[in-house]
Amino acid sequence: MTKVVLVTGSSQGLGATIARTLASQGFRVVINYNKSKEAADKMAFEIGKDHAIAIQADVTNRAEVERMVEKATAYFGQIDVVVNNALIDFKFDPVKQKPFSELSWEDYQGQLDGTLKAAFNVIQSVIPQFIERQNGSIINIGTNLFQNPVVPYHEYTTAKAGLIGFTRNIAAELGAYGIKANVVSGGLLKTTNASAVTTPEVFELIANATPLKKVTTPQDVANMVAFLSSYHASGITGQNYTVDGGLTMN
Predict the structure, then answer these.
(1) pLDDT tens per residue across span 24-38
(2) Which terminus of the chain faces fewer neighbouring Cβ atoms within 10 Å, N or C?
(3) Are 71 and 61 in contact (CB under 8 A)?
(4) Before 191, cis peptide (omega within 30)?
């Protein structure tokens, strides 16, 4: 049976590339959006109603997430994979990024909510059906910046670093139910809505320091997500896969 993948924040940017890549490989996709209804509906129409549905939900709102999961499950019968990709109110702007001395705890809390609370909401909402079927896959989108903060995006990077511990704890506990949990950490992507304000100098710096001499693309990350969503990754859990052309090496 074709797997059903819920991709949060998938009406644009990296999420849209992930959703389109999955659909092109035969997966059925749940396109989640918060405000970009037109873009989400257009993508769902292009993919086709038998293989895609667009559903609104603010992933930091538990009630909205539960409604989304219920609607997606009713439409496709089940959810097999969740990709926690949504990025809440953050731009990779090296010019306007606040220095640490000017950050407030609210800046950190916003990213903690957008990264960890959102993943928490989505995962807890799908876990009952994963446990019932003794199968399921969780893919959380991280960043290589926690290893190599080329630009110190303090609040964003701190939340993403926490996502790795969060994911590994889930993998350790829920593996007994056949549930897998992994992280895909891309480099700074060229180009998404969030990185559109990144200066050319930063992209050039990264490319020159990378063994492959290129900046990571959304498609590079989407390809890894598609692999982890597939049956080929049935024996993989608790891992952080860095897709950045070798800029950081584990």
Answers:
(1) 999 999 999 999 999
(2) N
(3) no
(4) yes
Residue 84, strand partner residues: 140
* pTM for this prediction: 0.94
Give phi and psi for 37, each to the nearest 5. Answer: -60, -45
Q: At what angle do helices 37-47 and 13-24 cross, to 10 degrees?
A: 10
Distance, in Å, from the CA atom of 20 to the CA atom of 18, rounded to the nearest integer, reads 6
Active site residue 75: no
Q: In this predicted model, what pLDDT tens digit does every residue of 77-122 receive, in sequence order?
A: 999 999 999 998 888 888 899 999 999 999 999 999 999 999 999 9
Query: Of the listed 33, 75, 108, 156, which one is catalytic?
Result: 156
| H helical segments located in the chain | 13-24, 37-47, 62-76, 105-112, 118-133, 154-174, 200-209, 218-229
